[in-house]
Amino acid sequence: MDSQPTACTLSAMGNSVRVGLLGCGTVGEAFAELLVERRGAIEDVTGISLELARIAVRDPGKPRSAKLDSGLFTGDPYDVVKADDVDVVVELIGGTAPAGELILAALNAGKSVVTGNKELVASSGPELYAAADRAGVDFFFEAAAVAAVPILRPIRESLVGEDVTRVAGIVNGTTNYILTRMTADGLGFDEALAKAQELGYAEPDSTADITGADAASKLAILSSLAFNRSVAADDVAREGIVGLDREDFELAAQFGYVIKLLAVADRFPGDTGDEAGAQIGAQVFPALVERDHPLATVRDSFNAVFVTTSAAGELMFYGRGAGPRPSASSILGDVAAAADHLRRGTHRRVPVGAPAAIRPTEDLEYSFYIRTEVDEAPGVLSQVTGVFGRHGVSIRKVDQHGSESQARVVFVTFPATERALNAALDELRGLGHVRGVGRVLRIYK
Ligand SMILES: NC(=O)C1=CN([C@@H]2O[C@H](COP(=O)(O)OP(=O)(O)OC[C@H]3O[C@@H](n4cnc5c(N)ncnc54)[C@H](OP(=O)(O)O)[C@@H]3O)[C@@H](O)[C@H]2O)C=CC1
Ligand SMILES: N[C@@H](CC=O)C(=O)O
Predict the structure, then answer these.
(1) CATH 3.30.750.24 fits 154-320, yes or no
(2) Which residues contact residue 240 at a Cβ distance below 8 angstroms, ignoring those fewer than 6 apart?
(3) Which ligand 1 atom minimizes the distance to the CA of 330?
């Protein structure tokens, strides 16, 4: 909701809004160029002239885009956040420090802030939202979740009256690109990652992408806004895509699936259906997705998120989830919105819900795909299925391929809790004829 007059209004500044940029790397440079390219068109539509006033970088001596005035650059970010000639600060340094303190300094100096920094928003969101509200300015971060795709604003505004029960989908462009290239072109993991880095999809430290940490931050942001409960990145259980091997991709295809890194958050009502006992389950994991499911067709750096609500039903948000220009587009949209608020003397508060009660991962239910290596010996298969059965895990499909002495057996289960599955796997690992239990994958429904 728009609230309270902002610290400085456009009437005091003419029709010009001055933008200060922190960071001019992969995304920052694309944003600065897009602003310069589109400022005339933005002025035509909004009547506001966006002016790039200052740019802070680590090394002002580095060669920069010829489209940017070299006189704008400084090596001191406080030259931007404290400057009198900056109205909106755009933070594209990344990481939690010094980005967090710079954003706080900018907000406290009465400047609206736009960022694409999911790591920071997922870890310190409530503190930053409160600082923005106290200062009467905007804090926008659309590019922090699913880059180019407008999803946070629709969740906050269009769906404000809705009861959201699920947010689920593909929210990391790098890993989706890697999985697509590995499946479609047979590229190796390292080669596919190097290409994703070259294309500007990966984080400055790509470990965040491949371990699922980046997706976990995005899911924390999405679910905090969708469920109006504060979910932190640490509340999101995560598994990345490291260690998936060719055999997993081949077997998935054989069973009619593709492998995707998914982020899934569900809101479970309390026992009596009330808000008081409600819990949120939030996880990031590589999953088997049926070949004809819409998520299976989301390729390369594209992302897609389904938002399920009680009245509207299922909504799908789709588009580029990574990359310099797509991210720049989203940041520019936020800057234009913040500038418009300055003109109207308002700001939009980010709602901060109470901390979410998190459902333990072990209580979440899925169907599972489990790859095992067992000795070819009489009765082994029934011994293994017996173990699953004892722990309440029912088997839906078995696929066995073997040599004379050893067989690879793949089990697909009916839905079971992770607790039941883990207990069955612990017992299986202790069985004499079981040589190995490979990666277990959840099956998305
Ligand atoms: N890649 C993508 O598709 C997307 C990325 N994002 C987010 O965008 C943000 C930026 O990522 P990316 O552009 O890849 O990062 P880069 O590493 O490419 O760029 C970082 C920039 O910050 C500058 N910088 C670093 N430290 C300081 C400092 N102490 N003071 C001033 N400037 C500093 C660097 O300066 P110098 O140039 O001198 O080294 C560089 O210009 C991250 O939060 C990321 O998560 C969000 C959406 C999509
Ligand atoms: N590294 C991220 C960039 C966008 O948020 C990704 O690959 O999704």
Answers:
(1) no
(2) 175, 209, 210, 211, 212, 213, 261, 284, 286
(3) 47
- Cβ-Cβ contacts under 8 Å for 131 (sequence gap 6 or more): 104, 107, 108, 139
Q: What percent of the chain has pLDDT over 90?
A: 91
pLDDT digits (tens, 9 = 90+) for 211-270: 999 999 999 999 999 999 999 999 999 999 999 988 889 999 999 999 999 999 999 998
Domain 361-443: assigned CATH number: 3.30.70.260
User: For the ranges 23-27, 41-45, 199-203, 269-273, which has the lowest average pLDDT?
Assistant: 269-273
CB distance 203 to ligand 1 below 6 Å: yes
Q: Which atom of ligand 1 is nearest to the CA of 323?
A: 3
| Collapsed DSSP state (helix, strand, coil) of residue 166 | strand
Taking the centre of ligand 2 as the mean of its atom positions, its distance from the CA of residue 93, in whole angstroms, is 14
Residue 396: what pLDDT? 96
Is there an atom of ligand 1 within 6 Å of 75 CB? no
- Residue 168: beta bridge partners? 264, 306
Confidence check: pLDDT of 13 > 80: no
CATH for 2-147+325-348 is 3.40.50.720
Contact 180/249 with Cβ under 8 angstroms?
A: no
Q: How many angstroms separate the CA atoms of 384 and 248, rounded?
A: 21
Q: 445: closest CA among 413, 422, 419? A: 413
pLDDT in tens, 79-138: 999 999 999 999 999 999 999 999 999 999 999 999 999 999 999 999 999 999 999 999
Residues carrying CATH 3.40.50.720, the chain: 2-147+325-348
Q: What's the CA-to-centroid distance between 297 and ligand 1, angstroms?
A: 30
ipTM, interface predicted TM-score of the complex? 0.99
140 has pLDDT over 70: yes
Asked if 87 and 342 touch (Cβ cutoff 8 Å), the reply is: yes
The atom number, within ligand 1, closest to the CA of 324 reads 3
| CATH 3.30.360.10 boundaries in the chain | 154-320
Q: What stretches of 236-379 show up as alpha helix (H) in DSSP?
A: 246-254, 324-344
Any ligand 1 atom below 6 A from CB of 24: yes
Which residues are part of the catalytic machinery?
Answer: 218
Q: What is the pLDDT of residue 6?
A: 47
Can you tell me whether residue 413 is helix, strand or coil?
strand
Residues of the chain with CATH 3.30.70.260: 361-443
Is the C-beta atom of 159 inside 6 A of ligand 2? no
